[in-house]
Design brief:
Oligomer: single chain
CATH topology of the largest domain: Rossmann fold
Number of domains: 2
Largest sheet: 3 strands, parallel
Number of helices: 6
CATH class of the largest domain: Alpha Beta
Distance between the termini: 68 Å
CATH architecture of the largest domain: 3-Layer(aba) Sandwich
Number of strands: 3
Structural class: mainly alpha
Order of helices and strands: HEHEEHHHH
CATH superfamily of the largest domain: P-loop containing nucleotide triphosphate hydrolases
Shape: elongated
Strand order of the largest sheet: 1-2-3
């Protein structure tokens, strides 16, 4: 029976392995090979505490970071973004086949863009950000075919003239 640790490793899309550069007892190569064998996924290696060592001591295939000072975090974000984008575009056969799907995706994108715009303000109004995010989720629900009671009632009563 597999441990929960191994089950978790098998279910992840990407693994970030952070190693302190000053930990001389840690066997980097052995640990990475073990993780790669179990996880069977993308592994990004981070070397932390780069502010404590000379540049020549850094590992070649690792992203050097300083959690204390925030150095290297933008490189880490870019690496994660690029790996996720390349993973999602390889062999993708997904296509929008109806106008409804196109409208749902476009509306979702517009809601996400609006939420980001409000979030990036100096004093963001979090209620508006939350509303836009909820709206984007509703568009995804539409795309996935999830139907709510409000959807059904709106559809039923849209053709009626109520109140006369």
């Amino acid at each position: 029976m597999k441990s929960s640790y191994i089950k978790t490793l098998e279910s992840i899309d990407m693994l970030l392995l952070m190693i302190d550069i000053d930990n001389k007892d840690f066997n980097y190569e052995e640990s990475i090979l073990k993780l790669a064998k179990v996880a069977n996924t993308e592994i990004i290696i981070l070397i932390n505490k780069i502010d404590l060592v000379a540049p020549s001591e850094k590992l070649a295939d690792a992203i050097p970071v300083s959690a204390l000072f925030g150095d290297g975090i933008s490189d880490l974000k870019n690496t994660i973004k690029n790996k996720l984008i390349s993973k999602n575009t390889q062999g993708s056969d997904t296509a929008l086949t109806t106008r409804r799907q196109e409208i749902a995706i476009t509306s979702c994108k517009n809601s996400l863009s609006a939420s980001l715009k409000y979030l990036n303000k100096d004093a963001p109004e979090l209620e508006i950000v939350a509303y836009e995010l909820r709206d984007s989720i509703n568009h995804i629900d539409t795309l996935m075919g999830k139907t709510t009671v409000d959807d059904i009632l709106n559809k039923v009563f849209s053709g009626f003239c109520v109140g006369k």
